[in-house]
Design brief:
Elements lengths: L1 E11 L2 E7 L11 E2 L1 E4 L6 H13 L2 E14 L5 E13 L8 E7 L10 H18 L17
Parallel strand pairs: 1-6
Antiparallel strand pairs: 1-2, 1-4, 2-3, 2-7, 5-6
Length: 152
């Protein structure tokens, strides 16, 4: 069986909007802090799923977002999940309560102190490193990656 999902880290003023998953029973993310996102509905594209899930979970409408890559989870019990990973730095609307847990703006440096998945720590650290190298002109990715990926 194949599952498709999205995950987005929304950024503003040096902070990420994090979701503390505390509500759902039998949740693989129970008590974890994660970005926002969820599973595809029938015939949705990754972008459509992203926009719908962010609106449902936060009340925000994204106005600026970037595709960062795809993460593959192989469960070993016949289920493979492909998660489209995004970041966003533009949105409009009013924050709404989330029915899956608590939303909180967390300073980027303090996110690592939360109960987050190890893979999220790796992604966020690599993102900071790569964006810093790009901004300082130490690497150039033009033509090597799709537009919008890793700040290129």
């Amino acid at each position: 069986m194949t599952k498709l999902s999205t995950l987005c880290y929304i950024e503003q003023d040096g902070r990420y909007l994090m979701l503390h998953r505390t509500v759902k029973k039998n949740d693989v993310n129970k008590d974890k802090w994660i970005g926002v996102g969820g599973h595809f509905e029938e015939d949705e594209s990754p972008e459509e799923c992203l926009l719908r899930e962010v609106k449902e979970e936060t009340g925000y409408t994204l106005t600026s977002y970037q595709y960062r890559g795809i993460v593959t989870f192989i469960s070993g019990n016949g289920v493979t999940e492909y998660m489209s990973l995004f970041t966003a730095d533009g949105f409009e609307g009013e924050e709404a309560a989330c029915d899956e847990g608590e939303l909180r703006w967390v300073e980027k440096e303090k996110v690592y102190d939360l109960n987050i998945w190890e893979g999220d720590k790796i992604f966020l650290r690599l993102r900071v490193l790569l964006d810093d190298l790009l901004q300082r002109g130490l690497i150039v990715l033009k033509g090597l990656l799709p537009p919008g990926l890793c700040g290129a």
